[in-house]
# Entry
Amino acid sequence: MREGTHEQHTTSARHRADFEFRRLLDRLPAAAYTCDAGGLITYFNERAEQAWGRAPLLDDPRDRY
# Structure
């Protein structure tokens, strides 16, 4: 295996898993969002936007949970 190939494969697999997870959250009949370790919103689904009455700012300290 070439050097870097394993790392590229791992990164690609992580991106696919993240995409699939968000796709699942998009289909939930409930509000869902994710935050980073600092509480910044990194993702929200349409139901969360409806529950909050607006779209939050992503990765912005003004919208922290």
Summary: The beta strands are 33-35, 41-44. The mean pLDDT is 90.
